[in-house]
Specification:
Elements (H helix, E strand, L loop, with lengths): L3 E6 L5 H9 L3 E6 L4 E3 L5 E3 L2 H9 L3 E2 L7 H9 L4 E5 L7 H5 L5 E5 L7 E2 L2 H7 L4 E8 L8 E9 L6 H24 L15 E2 L15 H10 L6 E5 L2 E11 L14 E3 L4 E9 L4 E3 H7 L10
Parallel strand pairs: 1-2, 1-6, 2-5, 6-7, 8-11
Antiparallel strand pairs: 3-4, 7-9, 9-10, 12-13, 13-15, 14-15, 15-16
Helix pairs in contact: 1-6, 5-7
Length: 307
């Protein structure tokens, strides 16, 4: 049975779920997203969120409230008379009154295997921690931080070739399909919920730019996962000849030496144990490029050092 839904989301990650819900016949009564922010080349134009852009193309009403805690915001939310709300990376806390407003509740798509990586940056943290897998989960929301009862889940292996953007895109598509299946089950009264375990709870703190500098004294696998977990944003970085270089993609390589030392003419860099080879990077003030293209313009010989 198609449902009348409120959709709440903001970034690119959220868009596939919105589109899939519409494609499967659900009625989107309204879309809630964050207010446009200054952007553009000079930072003067207000840039709508990816979700707002998608909603406008669909002809769905868009709301960008600064808060949901006022009586006016609650009454407006209730006025849409939704069966349920679907929340995907909205970026604003929902108070209890909002959670209680839809007849069947509010359902969040979260990009981790809860209770591991509750919080703001589950994709980055899973890669940086060296996790072997990630996934998406649909949960019925409560007022806690990603503590609601879980309805459905899908798992996905994390390989050493995956960056945060790679995993983001895979989970975004996987999550859209999962939410469509969850809403279908909800519509026919067959969505089953299970309480989250209190064992294995971890928190995915927001990424701090201060974390981004590469620590070459760590083992090669930890360096690789740190680099990939921060790619493309904010980008793990090191200095070469006093110039900052973001490292966006790398691979494990053979070799050893003083941490940060360049071991050959192919940008193989020694770590505390083992080595990595840089595949893609970005010089300060320049665009991203393949290592081979970088080396044609800036030859880096064995004996140079990243710090």
């Amino acid at each position: 049975m198609p449902l009348r839904l409120i959709f709440m989301g903001t970034p690119d990650f959220s868009v596939p779920t919105l589109l899939e819900l519409v494609a499967h016949g659900h009625e989107i009564a309204a879309v809630y997203t964050r207010a446009p922010k200054p952007g553009g080349r000079r930072g003067l134009q207000l840039q709508p969120t990816p979700v707002e852009e998608a909603a406008r193309k669909l002809g769905v009403p868009v709301l960008t409230p600064k808060t949901l805690k006022t009586e006016e915001a609650l009454e407006e939310f209730r006025s849409f008379d939704a069966d349920a709300a679907v929340v995907v990376a909205y970026g604003m806390i929902l108070p209890q009154a909002i959670l209680d407003a839809p007849k069947l509740g509010c359902y969040n798509l979260h990009a981790s295997l809860l209770p591991r990586w509750r919080g703001a940056a589950p994709i980055n943290r899973a890669i940086m921690a060296g996790d072997a897998e990630s996934g998406v989960m649909v949960m019925k929301m409560d007022v806690g931080l990603d503590t609601g009862d879980v309805a459905m889940a899908e798992r996905l292996a994390i390989t050493d070739t995956m960056t945060a953007l790679d995993l983001h895109d895979r989970l975004s598509r996987l999550g859209a399909d999962l939410m469509v299946r969850a809403m279908a089950a909800l519509g026919r009264g067959g969505l089953q919920l299970k309480k989250q375990s209190e064992d294995g709870v971890t928190y995915a703190a927001k990424i701090d730019k201060a974390e981004a500098r590469v620590d070459w004294t760590k083992p090669a696998h930890a360096v690789l996962r740190h680099i990939h977990g921060l790619s493309p944003f904010p980008g793990a970085w090191a200095e070469l000849d006093n110039a900052r270089v973001k490292i966006l993609r790398c691979e494990l390589a053979k070799g050893s030496g003083e941490p940060g030392a360049v071991l050959d003419d192919l940008l193989t860099i020694a770590c505390g144990e083992g080595a990595i080879r840089i595949i893609e990077l970005q010089r300060e003030g320049k665009g991203r490029m393949q290592a081979a293209d970088f080396l044609r313009g800036v030859p880096v010989k064995a004996g140079a050092k990243f710090t």
